[in-house]
Amino acid sequence: MPLEVVEYTDPACPWAWGSEPKFRLLRAELPEARWRRVFGILFDDGEDPAPDPAAEAAWYAKFIDGVSEHTGAPKPPHLAWVAKSSWPASLAAKAAETQGEAIAELVLTRLRETTFVHGTPADDTERVLAAVEGVPGLDVPALRAAMASAEIRQAVRDDWRETRNPCPEVLDITAPGPHSGRAKHLEHHVRYALPTLTFSGPGGRFVVPGWRPLREYFAAARAATG
Predict the structure, then answer these.
(1) Do the Cβ atoms of 101 and 112 come closer than 8 Å?
(2) Residue 11's closest CA among 111, 92, 101, 78?
(3) Is residue 203 exposed (0-12), middle (13-18) or buried (19+ Cβ within 10 Å)?
(4) Total structural domains within the chain
(5) How many CB atoms lie within 10 A of CB 102?
(6) What's this model's pTM, rounded to 2 decimal places?
(7) Helix 101-116 with 14-29: angle, nearest 10 deg
(8) By C-alpha distance, which of 204, 209, 149 is closest to 174?
């Protein structure tokens, strides 16, 4: 049985943004692994809008600043707004996978940059498509069509549900911060902390949630490989 890596993530998650270099190296060092990305929808549709969007953006910008102190990742000089929804970017990232892994990686990075470099989150279809314009090899009309397709929407809905059915290992983590990876207990459900990686293979399943050193990911991969 080959090694399978499942990555629970979101284009708008600052911890996932900070983990990109580690995960990129991990993928390069595990070329035979089957890697599956699950989009957890950090900002869901139907949530009540903030009564003061400017104050919300200022608060979230400080949160991003704090995360960046730990990860060393770039942060925007000014956050214009907090993403209203993770759905458009997640649909685009999932749709981009139909055009190949290399293109999908570039698309996801571009979408993350809208928040964490430019400070203008791609939280609707037109902002998403503007963000990915010029990605080498990307067929933008095909991406738009795939984003609107029943197949891609169902795939992201399945991701939403999978992220809200976390494995027992993450429910009661007591490891210290800054981001232990303990499952998030929200109003109506529990979901994986983002990002979380699971490694499954002949040696069993091993979970590395939250913000962890690179060595823990490689150790989990080795253990799962058996």
Answers:
(1) no
(2) 111
(3) middle
(4) 1
(5) 12
(6) 0.96
(7) 150
(8) 209
Consecutive 10-residue averages of pLDDT for the chain (226 residues): 95 98 97 97 89 96 98 97 97 98 98 98 98 98 98 98 97 90 92 98 97 97 96
CB atoms within 10 A of CB 194: 26
The total of other beta-carbon atoms located within 10 Å of residue 169's CB is 16
d(CA 153, CA 159): 10
* Residue-wise pLDDT tens digits, 96-115: 999 999 999 999 999 999 99
* Token pair of 207 as six digits: 């979970």
End-to-end CA distance of the chain: 10
Closest by alpha carbon to 46, among 77, 85, 11?
85
Provide the Cα torsion 37, 43, 45, 46; round to 10°: 150
- How is the chain split among helix, strand and coil, in percent rounded to 5? 50, 10, 40
Report the CATH number that the domain containing residue 54 is assigned in CATH: 3.40.30.10
- pLDDT, residue 188, reads 85
- The structure tokens listed for 42 are 């950090």
What gap in Å lies between CA 144 and CA 139, rounded to an integer? 9
Amino acid 200 reads S
Range of the domain at 22: 4-225
The pLDDT assigned to 186 comes to: 87
Instruction: Report CA-CA distances (Å) from 32 to 7, 142, 214, 221.
Output: 16, 29, 19, 12
Task: Give the length of the chain.
Answer: 226
